[in-house]
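Q: Is it fine to ask for two folds in a single conversation?
A: Yes, each is treated on its own. Send the first.
Q: Here.
A: Result:
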Amino acid sequence: LIEYAEEVDYSKLDYDFVFTSPPYIEKSGRQTERYKNMKDYTKDTFYTEFLLPTIYRIIHFLPDDKYVCINTHKTNMEVISRMLLGKPSIEIPYKTKERAGEQKRRDVHKTERYGEMIYCFKKDGKLKKHIEKSMRQYKLNFTLYPKKSKPNAPMLEVKGLGTKEISGIEA
């Protein structure tokens, strides 16, 4: 996609599977994988203004009985699971390549190679009920559409990917 995930209107896309690898907050509170022009989130707003609302919107517009898979660090998934999605349907171990600076750090501290998991959630009645319950429990009130979404905005259609709103282009 061309836009940042929190600014996409997922209702305008046609998709039946999602695989994402979002940035995360380390235990120290530092955000990993900062991208150019990305909003600077705090430890709290990272989840409440970015990650959880984005996952909520993605799942809402995902057809029933389809999957969203999230490749992330366990600290991220602990928050996602506790506050929104519950237990994943499938967990797949994933050994990654070295992260920047990892080899030197491992040599000095004798630590294990960095690894993550891929957590997959099937959108079914059980997941939808869990999301509703979590939203009430944590008093979450996410909108289905991003603040920047504009009705009748110019669209780009990509074969196999559906349609996509294009920002900054006049019709």
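Q: Second one now.
A: Result:
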Amino acid sequence: VRALCSVLGGEIPVFACIGTDAVSGDSLGPLTGSLLQERLKGAGYVYGTLEKPVTAKEANCLSVFLNHVHPYAKVLAVDAALGERSEIGKLRLTDRPLCPGAGVKKSLLPVGSASLIAVMEEKKGNGGAFLRLVRFSRVYALADFLADALCRYVRTAEETKTVYRETASFR
């Protein structure tokens, strides 16, 4: 939660969860989005769920949409990635936009103002095919962890804003 505070500055972000449930390793984004949507109970905007996934092919449209509908909001993009063998299961949180499809040599518009990616499998060759080999139990465990951490962050940010508003109203 501290790392999220550092990157997001205490703001409640719009969540852009990229991926497809058609490929197990690439389903991290939409699964995280579904869990977030369920747990936040309307306390934030979530784009990309199992029911309505946002794939890398739709990233350009999503980027334009988010810039139009949420022009001043922090947008946290969540996605699966390929990496080194030693990085499998690790998370990368940055204050930079997500470049969807970069691991499989796609050139798409960046999404968000910050990104959170989980390395799901080792990058080999063109990479994309290896996301199909990821066990769903790994995807679910990481999505559950991410949704829990992101919900805790949102609750903390809400509490901080409530305390600030109450303090400000006494002046």
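Q: Anything structural to flag on that second result?
A: Two points. Residues 59 and 95 are 18 Å apart (CA to CA). Confidence is low (pLDDT under 50) at residues 163-171.
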